[in-house]
Amino acid sequence: MAKVQVLNVAVLDNPSPFGNPFQFEITFECMEDLPEDLEWKIIYVGSAESEEYDQVLDSVLVGPVPAGRHMFVFQADAPNTGLIPESDAVGVTVVLITCTYHGQEFIRIGYYVNNEYTGPELRENPPLKPDYSKLQRNILAPNPRVTRFHINWEGVADTMEDSENVDPSPNTRGMLPPPCVPGKMPPLGLLPENSMDCL
Amino acid sequence: RLGKAPDWSTHRKPIFSVDIHPDGTKFATGGQGEDSGKVMIWNMAPVLREEDEKNEDVHKMLCQMDNHLACVNCVRWSNNGLYLASGGDDKLVMVWKRAAFIGPSTVFGSSSKLANVEQWRCVTILRNHTGDVMDVAWSPHDVWLASCSVDNTIVIWNARKFPEMVTCLRGHTGLVKGLTWDPVGKYVASQADDHSLKVWRTVDWQMEANITKPFNECGGTTHVLRLSWSPDGQYLVSAHAMNNSGPTAQIVERDGWKTNMDFVGHRKAVTVVKFNPKIFKKKQKNGSSNKPSCPYCCCAVGSKDRSLSVWLTSLKRPLVVIHDLFDKSIMDISWTLTGLGMLVCSMDGTVAYLDFSLDELGDPLSEEEKNSIHQNIYGKSMAITNTEAQLSTTIIENPEMLKYQQQRQTSTQTNSAPGTVGPESSAPKLNSVMNGESLEDIRKNLLKKQVETRTADGRRRITPLCIAQLDTGDFSPALFNSVPILPSGSSMSNQLTPHLSSDSSPGQPSSLGFRPSHDPMLTSPPANSLKTYLSNSGPGGQIRPFRIEPIKALDSRFTERSKATPGLTSSSTPAQKECKLKEDTSSDSEDKMASINKNLMYSKRKPELMIDGGEVVEKRKKGRPRKEKMTTSMVQSFTQVSMEPSVFLEVENEVTVVAGSKLSQLRCSKDGRDWNTLLPSSVVTAAGSSDLIAVASEDRMLSVFSSCGRRLLPAIQLATPVSALHCTAHFVMVVTAGATLSVWDVQKQKALVRNESLQSILSDTSVSQSLLTQQGVPVVGLSNGKSFCFSSSLETWSLIADKADSLVQCADFRGCLSSHDAPVSSGPLAVMQGRYLNAGRLASRLSSTPHHMQQSMTLAFLENQLASALTLQSGQEYRYWLLIYSRFLVNEGSEHRLRELCKELLGPVHTSATTSWEPTTVGFRKRELLREVLPVIGENLRFQRLFTEYQDQLELLRNK
């Protein structure tokens, strides 16, 4: 069973102008002290057609996480408009919040996002080139889609039992969204337990 | 007679298991959820009373838990009603406990708007099975929890020390699909697809009987094989058995495990048998003769043929048979503790409630009558005599004892969650840490308030705000034992009533009320809701068709795991590892180099200034003193500082003075008053305490000054260069490069330890740490994790800490920690043992050592701690461990040790010239310590004689 349960995600500052940062207030409960940090990411789906346009808006480490109920606000800048196909600027897309532990994703929370022009004229006759300054972002907060994955909470990724979690082959990496800095994960057992200077 | 299917309590997906809470106020169901297993807890009241069903303010569902990853096959309440165990296809057994904290909540992401009225939290996960868990069963008095699985095994868990495993019963060669405990706790029986029913002894966990004959013809065609033991213990009734190619429920007699009788009549395999928990006797009719009738049992049998039959063992024919109640196979049956109500669940996703009248079943025997039947047949069962239930009837003989018993009771109550009384109060609680601030206030400023830092590699790291802490000491034996064992259900339901009524008080939002038409389990597809959403806000309310496609494409994005994460991380990890390794090896090699040459190793130690408070502040005026110290000719000055009162030491080597002679200057400033002195040779290291300053110089001279700069001793010539120098109070300790250690008491001008060689403890290791306690006891930590102190009275090295000690890893004394005493973290023992103590306690939760082993290990560990604290003359730590030790002895019932301890602390009552007893130890009066220990002893009624004995003697001595 997952050691971390997401209890709630509140979408803050919603609806808001397109350029505003995303703000999610995340509440989660942890069953036991986690030795490692959790890594949270916000991924903006630029286009439904292809993962190519996915943008990792930000990733943060969250820790230390002792057993208990915790909350934090995850704020991330608005997507880089240059990376969004113009045809997909207006309309419905998705923003994803993922959380990984030991590099394994165990929860994925998805929200539909509707980007619309505020004025009726623009809505009727949208400009050919999207005008992001007039777009309003509306996250469909009441309907999150939550997918939970079974991961190995105890050890490192390579000892996992179910094939679902096996890392993708390296050649798929070319299609991936912009890489984000991987989590700081000091391998277990290599931490210096005691140093000369401890007094 | 009345059979109604409470349609609102349907999962709509198959329900595999149902169990009524012992207090009869709620019941649990287990089955398949949307994409996970589902455990739900329901209110019983709407099932029992139609008016409650219609009343919108009465909650129907109390809690749902989606934590199981796959279908839940079995849910069972513990006999005391505090825990719920569930087992599922995800190979896990989860144990749930009511958490009395923050109000109702929904399962995040489920479209159901119904809140969880009660919070049930998974307190432990039992992992051992390698296949689907099919059935779980609590032993009488909740000593053990048994689980069986398609991995052909049965695992017995220690229910008082989860997740400890007692044993794994192997012997079945097929999927094990049912379990039942003998009501007196002597046996556990299992039924499997291997055409056998096996009975196991709980004394040695060996097989008692293997019954195969009635099952030879059976095929493995049922999902479950829930067998049941009669409440009088005389009969065991199997699920699916065959007799003359007809499906039966086989009756197995306890006496010789004979299989002469069976329940016949079902047309398809029997899936579940459940005995009524009550034993009945024939209803005495007015006017009829008082002929004593033989007590009998009542048994319900459910089958794949969708019908249910109820039998009385006194009748040849079934009492009632109900056909067509369900559309699919019956999966589980649960009786109320009163014996008059029954819930039945089915694959078709419904649960039916049946209730019976006394006229139909007879007069139930009281618990006392049932117990006397048990005692007549079996004598006092182990399970009965071992429980605290019996102790509660012990007469309290001493008023003082009574006081401590009452204190203990009130403290357990106050320790538990505030506002609740009774057994519920010992539920794991979330201690609110909000300091009176409301959650809303916190949320408003969370973004501003939360701590955000950057990691070394420049990443954002947020420290989450802890809004509630989980109490992790759930299964400490003390806590578990203090729970009253439920005698009849009535006492508990009384205690529960106030709590329950508060649940349904008008304080709850009325929107939580139940709507019959609303299926809580049904998640409406979000694509639909998106459409509605768009039509509401979109232009003209029209959904443009081309948007449908992307939505479908988008839909898949919700569930597909991002490939980026694992790929990237794994690719980068090795690099990180490598660089980590590099760092490590570099420091390693440094260490190695150091240990090759002892001189080098010792001189590598940086000069330190130890001052009594323990807190050492150091200021380095110029750059990297460590390097400079290697080279003995230091030109630069360096400053070492300490506090309380703030003392600054500054050394300037090779101050050129007249005629080319080079002197070193030692400057000291204390409270703004400065003094300085000159030394003929370069200073290698310096140390100080609030009383004195010690300086070692290159020519192996040690000089000691008072805090005002007065030289206290003539320079001491050392044989080899100094590698570590410590000052504490009026003690000076020197570790030399020749691996010797000396300690002087400057006040008394006396050597405490004279050139003691470290060779005896240094075998292929190096010194990693050294310190001097307030009492002048030298302590040396080695690179292999061992720490020694030199006991000047014993004139020997004593091992005080060993980080590799398995006792430390396995000792478990969490139950003995008192909330009143803050752990001593500053004493020398704590310093040397470091955080390993913590790690040990953590590891103990994972270890699967049997209880008695762990008990002995804990005992050995605690005694080690006591002895070490004594040798270190660390008073506070001695007292701290003494109290833990005595609490442990009290909990585990070691009377001999307790008595010896008390005897030692009390000493001889009549003093004579020949007594060698010391009235004090490490600065404490022993009798004062005894006065602290006695209340601990008073908490356990078993020791009331011991308590009284020493209490009286203490009183006697005081009056003298």
From TrEMBL, chain A:
GO biological process terms on file: DNA replication-dependent chromatin assembly
Gene3D superfamilies assigned to the protein according to its UniProt record, in alphabetical order: Histone chaperone ASF1-like
Localization terms from the record: Nucleus
Keyword annotations: Chaperone, Chromatin regulator, Nucleus, Transcription, Transcription regulation
Any single GO CC term annotated in Swiss-Prot or TrEMBL for this entry: nucleus
UniProt keyword Transcription present: yes
Record keyword Transcription regulation present: yes
Entry's Gene Ontology molecular function annotations: histone binding
InterPro entries: ASF1-like, ASF1-like_sf
Record-linked Pfam families: ASF1_hist_chap
PANTHER family assigned: ANTI-SILENCING PROTEIN 1, HISTONE CHAPERONE ASF1B
Family: Belongs to the ASF1 family.
Designated name of the protein: Histone chaperone asf1b-B-like
Species of origin: Gouania willdenowi
Species classification: Eukaryota, Metazoa, Chordata, Craniata, Vertebrata
TrEMBL record, chain B:
Biased composition, class Basic and acidic residues, residue ranges: 577-591
GO annotation (BP), single: regulation of DNA-templated transcription
Pfam families named in the record: Beta-prop_CAF1B_HIR1, Hira
Biased composition (Low complexity): 405-414, 500-513
Composition bias, Polar residues: 525-537
Domain Protein HIRA-like C-terminal: 709-905
Organism of provenance: Gouania willdenowi
Full protein name: Protein HIRA
